[in-house]
Amino acid sequence: MTATDRALELVRVAAEAASDKLAQEIIAYDVSEQLVITEAFVLCSAPNDRQVRAIVDEVEDQLRLQAGAKPVRREGERDGRWVLLDYADIVVHIQHEEERGYYGLERLWKDCPEIDLPEGARGAQRTPLDEF
Asked: Which residues form a coiled coil (predicted)?
């Protein structure tokens, strides 16, 4: 089983919205064979809490406007360090870059197929020099 067309469309809209607000390292995984509760994860990060909130707002706005989707659950907004938007078909994780490095969701889901994102929806990619 692979992610449905609906889930893939939500992934595309979420990734493009995150990219519009300068999210970093946007990646999506098809987790449909591993989980029964959702079909795809979208992961992205930002260097500060304010930008995390801006990305969250844009993702919610664009998913509502372009796909008629509303989150069934929203967690973590109070601290602005890691916000989870659950749309049932997909889950969007918007993390502060420190939390992303610490929790390493990519390591957990690396065996799942990566979903191709449009070129403009991949966000800024960090390089090893960014670590200094």
From this structure: none
State how many domains the chain has.
1
**All residues at 6 or more sequence positions from 93 whose CB lies less than 8 Å from its CB, including other chains:** 41, 42, 43, 44, 82, 83, 84, 105
Does any domain span residue 38?
Answer: yes
Residue 117 counted as domain residue: no
Nearest 5°: phi and psi at 81?
-105, -30
Classify residue 123: in a domain, yes or no.
no
Closest CA to 95 of 104, 19, 108: 104
Contact predicate 96/49, CB 8 Å: yes
Record the tokens describing residue 100, joined without a space. Answer: 């992303």
Q: What is the pTM of this model?
A: 0.90
Chain position carrying tokens 């990305």: 55
Residue with tokens 């907004």: 77
- 102 SS3 class: helix
Query: pLDDT tens across 62-83, in order?
Result: 999 999 999 999 999 777 799 9
